[in-house]
Amino acid sequence: MNLGVPAHEAQDLCQEVMLTVHRKLPDFDGQSLRGWLYGICVRVASDYRRSARVRREVVSEAPPDQAVEASQGDALDRKRRLTRLMAALDQLDEAKRAAFVLHEIEELTLAEVAEALQAPIQTVYSRIRAAHVLIQRAFASPASSGPSKGGILEAG
User: Which of 55, 70, 83, 112 could form a disulfide with 35 if both were Cys (CB 3.0 to 4.6 A apart)?
Assistant: First the structure.
Protein backbone atom coordinates (compact mmCIF):
# COMPACT_ATOMS: atom_id res chain seq x y z
CA MET A 1 0.00 0.00 0.00
CA ASN A 2 2.91 2.35 0.59
CA LEU A 3 3.73 2.60 -3.09
CA GLY A 4 0.14 3.55 -3.83
CA VAL A 5 -1.26 0.05 -4.23
CA PRO A 6 -4.35 -0.79 -2.19
CA ALA A 7 -4.27 -4.01 -0.17
CA HIS A 8 -6.95 -5.66 -2.30
CA GLU A 9 -4.73 -5.31 -5.41
CA ALA A 10 -1.44 -6.36 -3.78
CA GLN A 11 -1.69 -10.05 -4.61
CA ASP A 12 -2.29 -9.40 -8.33
CA LEU A 13 0.59 -6.93 -8.50
CA CYS A 14 2.84 -9.33 -6.60
CA GLN A 15 2.19 -11.86 -9.37
CA GLU A 16 3.01 -9.16 -11.93
CA VAL A 17 6.31 -8.52 -10.10
CA MET A 18 7.14 -12.23 -10.16
CA LEU A 19 6.39 -12.46 -13.88
CA THR A 20 8.61 -9.44 -14.51
CA VAL A 21 11.40 -10.93 -12.38
CA HIS A 22 11.16 -14.20 -14.32
CA ARG A 23 11.22 -12.35 -17.65
CA LYS A 24 14.14 -10.06 -16.71
CA LEU A 25 16.25 -12.54 -14.71
CA PRO A 26 18.65 -13.19 -17.63
CA ASP A 27 19.44 -9.44 -17.66
CA PHE A 28 20.22 -9.27 -13.92
CA ASP A 29 23.83 -8.16 -13.43
CA GLY A 30 24.28 -9.86 -10.05
CA GLN A 31 24.99 -6.63 -8.15
CA SER A 32 22.24 -5.93 -5.61
CA LEU A 33 19.33 -8.33 -5.76
CA ARG A 34 17.37 -6.31 -3.21
CA GLY A 35 17.72 -3.05 -5.13
CA TRP A 36 16.90 -4.77 -8.42
CA LEU A 37 13.74 -6.35 -6.97
CA TYR A 38 12.57 -3.12 -5.37
CA GLY A 39 13.15 -1.33 -8.67
CA ILE A 40 10.79 -3.76 -10.34
CA CYS A 41 8.24 -3.27 -7.52
CA VAL A 42 8.41 0.51 -7.92
CA ARG A 43 7.83 0.28 -11.68
CA VAL A 44 4.93 -2.19 -11.35
CA ALA A 45 3.29 0.01 -8.69
CA SER A 46 3.83 3.09 -10.85
CA ASP A 47 2.25 1.38 -13.86
CA TYR A 48 -0.69 0.34 -11.69
CA ARG A 49 -1.29 3.89 -10.41
CA ARG A 50 -1.27 5.21 -13.98
CA SER A 51 -3.70 2.59 -15.28
CA ALA A 52 -7.20 3.53 -16.35
CA ARG A 53 -8.86 1.19 -13.86
CA VAL A 54 -7.31 3.10 -10.97
CA ARG A 55 -8.56 6.46 -12.21
CA ARG A 56 -12.13 5.17 -12.50
CA GLU A 57 -12.14 3.43 -9.15
CA VAL A 58 -13.85 5.12 -6.22
CA VAL A 59 -12.35 3.87 -2.99
CA SER A 60 -14.55 3.58 0.05
CA GLU A 61 -13.95 1.80 3.30
CA ALA A 62 -16.19 -1.09 4.20
CA PRO A 63 -17.80 -1.03 7.63
CA PRO A 64 -15.94 -3.09 10.26
CA ASP A 65 -17.01 -6.71 10.57
CA GLN A 66 -16.46 -6.89 14.31
CA ALA A 67 -16.55 -4.73 17.41
CA VAL A 68 -13.56 -2.54 18.22
CA GLU A 69 -11.44 -3.56 21.21
CA ALA A 70 -11.24 -1.50 24.39
CA SER A 71 -7.95 0.03 23.19
CA GLN A 72 -9.81 1.76 20.40
CA GLY A 73 -8.39 5.18 21.30
CA ASP A 74 -4.84 4.09 20.49
CA ALA A 75 -5.99 2.20 17.43
CA LEU A 76 -7.92 5.23 16.25
CA ASP A 77 -4.86 7.47 16.72
CA ARG A 78 -2.70 5.01 14.76
CA LYS A 79 -5.31 4.76 12.01
CA ARG A 80 -5.59 8.55 11.79
CA ARG A 81 -1.80 8.94 11.59
CA LEU A 82 -1.61 6.23 8.94
CA THR A 83 -4.42 7.84 6.96
CA ARG A 84 -2.66 11.20 7.25
CA LEU A 85 0.64 9.64 6.13
CA MET A 86 -1.00 7.95 3.14
CA ALA A 87 -2.66 11.24 2.16
CA ALA A 88 0.71 13.01 2.48
CA LEU A 89 2.39 10.30 0.39
CA ASP A 90 -0.31 10.72 -2.26
CA GLN A 91 0.62 14.40 -2.52
CA LEU A 92 4.27 13.62 -3.33
CA ASP A 93 5.37 13.25 -6.91
CA GLU A 94 6.25 9.72 -7.95
CA ALA A 95 10.03 10.16 -7.63
CA LYS A 96 9.89 11.57 -4.09
CA ARG A 97 7.32 9.02 -2.96
CA ALA A 98 9.31 6.06 -4.24
CA ALA A 99 12.57 7.29 -2.70
CA PHE A 100 10.91 8.07 0.64
CA VAL A 101 9.02 4.77 0.86
CA LEU A 102 11.99 2.64 -0.12
CA HIS A 103 14.36 4.35 2.31
CA GLU A 104 12.19 5.25 5.29
CA ILE A 105 9.55 2.52 5.27
CA GLU A 106 11.18 -0.41 3.46
CA GLU A 107 14.55 0.51 5.05
CA LEU A 108 16.72 0.17 1.96
CA THR A 109 20.09 1.89 2.03
CA LEU A 110 20.62 5.00 -0.10
CA ALA A 111 22.72 2.91 -2.49
CA GLU A 112 19.95 0.32 -2.84
CA VAL A 113 17.35 3.03 -3.41
CA ALA A 114 19.58 4.66 -6.01
CA GLU A 115 19.93 1.33 -7.81
CA ALA A 116 16.20 0.59 -7.61
CA LEU A 117 15.28 4.01 -8.96
CA GLN A 118 18.23 4.19 -11.36
CA ALA A 119 19.21 7.60 -10.01
CA PRO A 120 22.38 9.07 -8.50
CA ILE A 121 22.66 8.82 -4.70
CA GLN A 122 22.69 12.62 -4.37
CA THR A 123 19.41 12.83 -6.27
CA VAL A 124 17.87 10.12 -4.08
CA TYR A 125 19.04 11.95 -0.95
CA SER A 126 17.52 15.24 -2.10
CA ARG A 127 14.23 13.52 -2.98
CA ILE A 128 14.05 11.90 0.46
CA ARG A 129 14.88 15.20 2.16
CA ALA A 130 12.22 17.06 0.14
CA ALA A 131 9.67 14.33 0.93
CA HIS A 132 10.47 14.65 4.64
CA VAL A 133 9.80 18.39 4.51
CA LEU A 134 6.48 17.93 2.67
CA ILE A 135 5.30 15.16 4.98
CA GLN A 136 6.24 17.12 8.09
CA ARG A 137 4.26 20.08 6.73
CA ALA A 138 1.26 17.82 6.16
CA PHE A 139 1.41 16.69 9.78
CA ALA A 140 1.89 20.24 11.03
CA SER A 141 -1.11 21.66 9.17
CA PRO A 142 -4.09 22.82 11.27
CA ALA A 143 -6.27 19.96 10.02
CA SER A 144 -3.91 17.53 11.71
CA SER A 145 -3.80 16.67 15.33
CA GLY A 146 -0.14 16.03 14.62
CA PRO A 147 1.83 12.90 15.27
CA SER A 148 1.44 11.66 18.78
CA LYS A 149 4.01 9.95 20.91
CA GLY A 150 4.64 7.21 18.31
CA GLY A 151 5.74 9.55 15.52
CA ILE A 152 4.60 9.76 11.93
CA LEU A 153 5.92 6.48 10.63
CA GLU A 154 5.03 4.33 13.59
CA ALA A 155 1.42 4.33 12.55
CA GLY A 156 0.95 0.60 12.77
Answer: 112
